[in-house]
Amino acid sequence: MGPIAVVLDHTTTTALHDPKDPHNEAVAAFYVQASGGLGTLYAPVLSLTAGDTERPGLLAYINGLRFIQIEPFDTQAALTATELLHAGHSWAAVHAIHAARPSADFPAGRYLLTLTPELYDGAGVLAVHPDR
User: Is residue 129 within 8 Å of residue 42, measured between CB atoms?
Assistant: First the structure.
């Protein structure tokens, strides 16, 4: 099995941003693994934008990290977001869901690392908590 692909949502990027967060160490362990080539971390820009409204500086901080790739919000992501917003998902979650779902580049999808896996029930993604 090769390196894994992991999408960070607004909750895990916020935990990584705050060294006092009780989940910081668990999320940081994923970053350390990515720095060693054991996986790739992706942060959806719309999720970061939503997170930045509650945690100013979040987007700039994550953008400055070398081993996290910012996932762009393109037309396909917007179409998915519209569908998910109508289904009751939050702005913070819709881009993370889109990024974690199966795609041409990731036919099996990507893992979605989140502190609130229940937020993604029924969204067609594999949402996992970093501490579990």
Answer: no
* pLDDT band with cut points at 50, 70 and 90 for residue 2: low
Cβ atoms within 10 Å of 92's Cβ, excluding its own: 22
**93 and 45 in contact (C-beta within 8 Å)?**
no
* Cα distances (angstroms) measured from residue 90 to each of 50, 93, 105, 106, 109: 9, 5, 25, 24, 20
The total of other beta-carbon atoms located within 10 Å of residue 14's CB is 25
Render pLDDT for 83-117 as a digit per residue (tens, 0 to 9).
Answer: 999 999 999 999 999 999 999 999 999 999 999 99
Q: Is pLDDT above 50 for 1?
A: no
Q: 84, 88, 86, 68: which is closest to 9 by C-alpha?
A: 68
Using alpha carbons, list the distances in angstroms from residue 69 to 33, 35, 85, 114, 118: 14, 12, 24, 17, 25
Contact (Cβ atoms closer than 8 angstroms) between residue 10 and residue 21: no
> If we measure between CA atoms, which residue out of 73, 65, 85 comes closest to residue 49?
73
